[in-house]
Amino acid sequence: MRISAGLTLAASTAACLALFTGCSGTGSTTDTTPSNDAPSTAPVSSEPTGSTPMSSQAPSSGASQGAAETRDVFENPPAKSWNDALEAARKLFPGDPIEIELEPRDRGGLEYKIELVTDAAQFEVQFDAESLEKLASDEDQAGDDVAKARLKLIDTNDIVALEDAAKTARGKQEGTITSWKLEGKEDGSVKYEFDILPKGNSDDIEVSINAKDGSLIPGS
């Protein structure tokens, strides 16, 4: 009986082990080890799907804005007139004018350049054409240059109006007047010089007008 019972217990134990082994071989198990064949996880983008980089969404300011148009000093004049600039210059230096000029500034805007002379010295001053803020000035003492400068004196009461001279200049050459100058010469003559930029051109054309009678100076 004891031998039979022992054999029976051993047989039962062997049957259970066989059953357990069979279940583990045919059942599915989960493998937690990553497979070498599995695709890698794609990196997560910091931008939403389908978004466009900012640099390609909008053009730069240079691309969206064209070059600034050249300023016509008569159609778009400065806040201060040449008479205002001359008066301001004479407050700094009690001389007579030999040159008055309106021209573009390197940093944008316009400036007046006034040259005055006395028997003893020559003076040059530059003003911002909108505010008459003094930008620069220079003074030379008596000498040969001053003596020659005295020959260039301009009597501002004995010249044709600037606007009339500009109209005559435009009759000779159409375009944008970018600057002008009233200048006395050693022979006693006085002339206006207008820099005119024709449409579609990049270079100015200079036109000169006799400031005493308003006529076009030949060769200009």
TrEMBL record:
Pfam families: PepSY. Residues 26-35, 55-68 have a biased composition (Low complexity). Residues 1-26 form the signal peptide. The keyword Heme does not apply. The keyword Iron-sulfur does not apply. Residues 36-54 have a biased composition (Polar residues). Residues 84-134, 160-216 form the PepSY domain. It comes from the Bacteria. Keywords: Signal. InterPro entries: PepSY. Residues 26-79 are annotated as: Disordered. This is PepSY domain-containing protein. It comes from Paeniglutamicibacter antarcticus. The lineage of its organism: Bacteria, Bacillati, Actinomycetota, Actinomycetes, Micrococcales.
